[in-house]
Amino acid sequence: MLPGGLWNNESRQRQFHFKPLTGEVELALAESGRTADKLPQQVSAVLPSALDSLADDSPTYEAVARLSVGDRQYLMRRLAIHLGHDSIWLTAQCHQCAAPFDVSIRQSQLPVKRAGVAYPFVEVDSAIGRLKFRVPNGSDQEVVAALDDERQAFMTLLTRCLIESCDADVSDLTDRDIQVIESAMEAVAPEVANQIQATCPECDAENIIEISPYSCLGAAGKNLFSEIHQLAMHYHWSEAEILALPRARRSTYLSLIDRARGMRN
Ligand SMILES: [Zn+2]
Predict the structure, then answer these.
(1) CA 72, CA 69: separation in Å to the nearest integer?
(2) What spacing in Å lies between the alpha carbon of 211 and ligand 1's midpoint?
(3) Do 109 and 28 share a structural domain?
(4) What is the CA(197)–ligand 1 centre distance, in A?
(5) Do 99 and 203 have their domain in common?
(6) Ligand 1 centre from 199 Cα, in Å?
(7) Under a CB-based contact definition with an 8 Å cutoff, are residues 170 and 159 in contact?
(8) Residue 165 C-alpha to ligand 1 middle, in angstroms?
(9) Among 13, 50, 144, 152, which has the highest number of CB atoms less than 10 A from its own CB?
(10) Domain range for residue 239?
(11) Based on the domain organization, do 204 and 75 belong to the same domain?
(12) 3-state DSSP call for residue 25?
C-alpha cells in the first residue's frame, strides 16, 4: 500500500505491485541516467517499467507523474528492496572527531509517514483569501527541476498546486502565508525517512546521515551488460530473450557457464 495514494474519482487508490524481477527492470534502472538527465524524469521513466500495476490500473508514465513526491520516494525505496538491496551500508564521517565509520541499515525498517486525512488537499487562509492546494506531485517536480531560481521554482510550484480560487495570484502571498502553506502541505503529505541518526563508534557523538530514497537509480545492473554478453556468447540468445529471463534463472545459467569453464581449465 502506498502511504498516500492516487486520487481517482473522489477516492484514494493505494495498491501497487511490482513485476517479477527480470533484466528488463534492471536495464531500465541502468539506463535511467541516459534516458533523462533530471532525477524526477528518471523516476517517472523507471517506475512504469518496474510496476505491474498501480492503483488497480496499468502503471503509465502519466499515472506515475501524478503520484505525490512521498509516494514516488516510497516506491523507489520499495524497488531497491525488491532488487535485493534491503540491507545496505552507509559511510559517514563524524562531524565531531572526523573519524570515518560505517552504519548498516535495513531499508524496509526505515520509518514511513502516512498521508493525513485531508490528503491530497490542504486549505489555508491567506492575505488573498482562503486557498485550496493539492500536495506536489511528480509532474510538478519535473517542471520545477528545470528552473534554476529557487523563488521562481517555488512560486511555479504553488501556482501549479493551487486548485481553487483560480483568479488568485500567488505573487500576492506574504512570506508568512507561504510558511503556513508549506507547513500545511508537509502535515498532509506522505513522507519517507531521508536521514537517520547514528552514534560515532570513536567519540559517541550523534550524527545525522543522509539516506537517499533513490539509491537504486543507476546502481542496479552494474554487471547486467557483462552478464548479457556472457549469455549471448554462450547460448546465442538475443538480448531481448536474455532480458526477459527472471533474474534467478539468469544467474543459474551464468553459474552453469562458470562451471563448464572450470571443467575445461
Ligand atoms: Zn566521532
Answers:
(1) 5
(2) 19
(3) yes
(4) 13
(5) yes
(6) 8
(7) yes
(8) 52
(9) 50
(10) 224-256
(11) yes
(12) helix
Ligand 1 mean position, distance from CA 49 (Å): 42
Q: What residues are neighbours of ligand 1 (ion), with CB under 5 Å?
A: 94, 96-97, 99, 200, 202-203, 205
Number of domains in the chain: 3
pLDDT digits (tens, 9 = 90+) for 115-158: 999 999 999 998 888 899 999 999 999 999 989 898 889 889 99
C-alpha span between 84 and 206 (Å, rounded): 29
**pLDDT by residue (tens digit) across 6-39?**
998 788 999 999 998 899 888 888 887 777 788 9
Task: Give the pLDDT mean for 164-193.
Answer: 87
| Residue 70 belongs to some domain of the structure | yes
Q: Model's pTM, two decimal places?
A: 0.89
C-alpha–C-alpha distance, residues 108 and 226, integer Å: 30
Does residue 200 lie in a domain region?
A: yes
Nearest residue to 184 via CA among 132, 128, 242, 254: 132
Q: What is the CA radius of gyration of the chain?
A: 22
Q: Report how far ligand 1's centroid is from the alpha carbon of 118 (Å).
A: 43
Q: How far, in Å, is the centroid of ligand 1 from the Cα of 206?
A: 8
Residue 113 Cα to ligand 1 midpoint, Å, equals: 30
Whether 164 maps to a domain, the answer reads yes
Cell numbers found for residue 38:
533530471
- Say if residue 29 is in the same domain as residue 106: yes
